[in-house]
Design brief:
This protein has about 200 residues and is mainly alpha-helical. Helix content is about 80%, strand content about 5%. It has helices at about 5-40, 45-75, 90-100, 100-135, 135-140, 155-195; strands spanning about 145-150, 150-155. The chain has a two-stranded antiparallel sheet. Helix 1 (about 5-40) packs across helix 4 (about 100-135) and helix 2 (about 45-75) crosses helix 6 (about 155-195). The protein is elongated and about 75 Å long.
Length: about 200
């Protein structure tokens, strides 16, 4: 693998980890607010359609996760099982969605992405941002106060040591980031396979 391919791969990993945080936060807020609003407003005209469309959204979001994982990680994941639209009144459709075990399993999987996203954003800071700041230490130390394990960086020689530590952290962080991306891709694959068995 050439240097350009490696750089592109690590940039894809970086973007994928950021997207994992953003989508995980979105799913958590969307389902928490949507289900709470739908249940509390169920006695009004607004509640049942809200609950119906929130529960039906799981298929689209799982499909989105599958495609996003394929694009950024090259992990092949089978198709998401298609959904059959229920006939009948709105109440019958909502009842069918509420009793559909696949919906609740998908919601749990998608809300778990919030925890995975928190881990991802912490790892982005540790694996990508911190080493970059360390590499820029010789240029930044005159303008900012740096401290590394309690050692104040006030000289050019000390900043070169920090830059060396940054180079080592870049090398380690890229491999750790790649491993984390593969684990998240495996999580998506397990989610789709689990839903396909239902």
């Amino acid at each position: 693998m050439g240097i350009n391919q490696r750089i592109r791969k690590h940039l894809r990993n970086f973007v994928f980890l950021l997207l994992t945080f953003v989508t995980g936060l979105f799913y958590f807020c969307f389902y928490l607010v949507g289900i709470t609003l739908g249940v509390t407003m169920a006695i009004t005209i607004i509640g049942l359609p809200t609950l119906h469309y929130v529960l039906r959204s799981t298929h689209a979001f799982v499909q989105h996760e599958r495609i996003q994982t394929k694009i950024y990680t090259n992990i092949s994941i089978g198709p998401v099982p298609s959904r059959i639209r229920e006939e009948g009144s709105l109440w019958e459709q909502v009842k069918a969605e509420l009793l559909n075990e696949r919906n609740w399993q998908a919601i749990l999987w998608l809300m778990l992405r919030f925890v995975i996203g928190l881990v991802s954003i912490i790892c982005v800071a540790l694996f990508y941002v911190t080493p970059l700041i360390f590499l820029l230490a010789p240029a930044l130390y005159p303008f900012y106060n740096f401290s590394f394990f309690g050692m104040e960086i006030k000289t050019f020689g000390a900043s070169l040591l920090i830059m060396l530590a940054g180079a080592i952290l870049v090398w380690i962080g890229l491999y750790l980031g790649n491993g984390l991306v593969k684990m998240i891709g495996g999580h998506t694959r397990r989610m789709v396979k689990g839903l396909a068995r239902k």
